[in-house]
Design a protein that fits this description.
6-stranded antiparallel barrel
Length: about 230
């Protein structure tokens, strides 16, 4: 699955084939075999103008384990969706199939995610290696779409900064079901926890992960897909 999930980075290039990674912005993931990817639109907007946007991908030529490939183009979904679809000139692997909206709610169901959490510069400062981490946990709450707000899912695990843009999925074989995309962290408010071994009850403000529910975005037909919908390619 790590071939389909990649760090989103800012980089500079003094000459073709040479790239210096400046920093990581988050995570992106491929949804087909031709380099079509999804991530958060806000990550792409935050990139600035002093560098290019790219992905750190695995290269299977036996010589170059990782390489930076630029994002050639991208397109954002209409508000309130913080979702962007993009394209990189690289052969990719499809690891997900977009899940359908089910009559049965997701509440309490276990979902997983995998994404980049850091860049390891110990061996090569110019071309750092991505560090991945997997999380899993149950759905704490579902929020339907409302004016100015996309449908969201509250998760029982946190979302580190670089995990933003990572896929949230149901583990299934032969291909995982894509449900949502990691967006950040929220708060469930002040929760009371009963004391143990005679200790008094404790109150603390618990944080949780937030993901945007992608299942309702299936009919989206971005120009980048030339008339096809997201569900048709994923």
């Amino acid at each position: 699955m790590q071939d389909a999930i990649v760090p989103l980075v800012r980089f500079t290039s003094e000459r073709p084939g040479s790239a210096t990674v400046l920093d990581a912005l988050g995570t992106a993931f491929f949804v087909d075999e031709s380099g079509i990817l999804l991530t958060l639109a806000s990550l792409l907007r935050d990139a600035g103008r002093d560098a290019s946007l790219g992905l750190v991908v695995r290269i299977r030529d036996g010589r170059t384990p990782h390489a930076v490939v630029p994002i050639v183009e991208f397109e954002s979904a209409d508000a309130p969706w913080d979702i962007a679809i993009g394209r990189a000139d690289v052969a990719s692997r499809r690891a997900f199939s977009l899940a359908h909206v089910e009559a049965q709610p997701l509440l309490g169901r276990e979902l997983g995610t995998l994404g980049c959490i850091a860049l390891d510069r110990s061996k090569d400062a110019r071309s750092p290696l991505p560090v991945f981490r997997a999380h899993s946990g149950c759905v704490l709450r579902e929020s339907s779409a409302s004016p100015g707000r996309a449908p969201a899912i509250d998760l029982a695990f946190g979302v580190p900064s670089l995990l933003r843009g990572a896929p949230v999925f149901v583990h299934e074989r032969p291909i995982a079901k894509l449900v949502a995309i990691c967006a950040g962290n929220g708060s469930l408010g002040d929760l009371r926890y009963p004391g143990v071994f005679g200790e008094p009850d404790a109150t603390r403000r618990d944080a949780h992960g937030v993901a945007f529910d992608l299942r309702g975005l299936g009919p989206w037909r971005p120009k980048l897909l030339a008339g096809r919908s997201l569900r048709e390619i994923c």
